[in-house]
Amino acid sequence: MTATDRSIELINTAAQAAADKLAHDIIAYDVSDVLSITDAFLLASAPNDRQVKAIVDEIEERLQKELGAKPVRREGDREARWVLLDYVDIVVHVQHSEERVFYALERLWKDCPELDLPADAQATRGKAEEHAKLQAAEESAEPDGEWR
Asked: Which of 47-51, 83-87, 119-123, 128-132 shows the lowest mean pLDDT across its residues?
């Protein structure tokens, strides 16, 4: 069994919305062969809680406006460290970069087929690592905080 056309449409719209809000490392898996509760997972991350929330809001708004889809469940909103949007056909995970590394959902689903995504979403691969290196360089370049 493979993901339905509807699931693919939802995944692509959600992936584009996430890319438009500068999400990092967007990837989607067809989990229909191993799970009976959904067809596909979309994973995305962001370096801070506010951006996680903005990505989630954009995904939800675009899926509603363009495809008439509303999530049946939305979890993790309060902390905005890992927000889950359940659309039955697909499940969207938007995680803070630290949670993404810690939970490593890609390892769990690596045996499932990866779904093709829009070019903008594919271009986000490696952005989390790039952002972390940039942030580390900025932190090491900052003065030590002593008054001179």
From this structure: 128-132
CA distance 91 to 84: 7
Ramachandran angles phi, psi of 54, nearest 5°: -65, -40
Measured over the CA atoms of residue 86, residue 15, residue 111 and residue 2, the dihedral's sign is positive
Kindly report the pTM of this predicted structure. Answer: 0.87
Q: Is the Cβ–Cβ distance between 97 and 131 less than 8 Å? A: yes
Cα 113 to the center of its chain, rounded Å: 17
Residue 87 parent element (H or E)? none
CA distance 100 to 19: 17
Cα–Cα separations (whole angstroms), residue 11 to 8, 28, 52: 5, 7, 17
Spell out the alpha helix ranges (H) of the chain: 5-20, 49-67, 97-103, 105-109, 119-122, 127-141
Residue 126 one-letter amino acid: G
DSSP assigned state of 37 = S
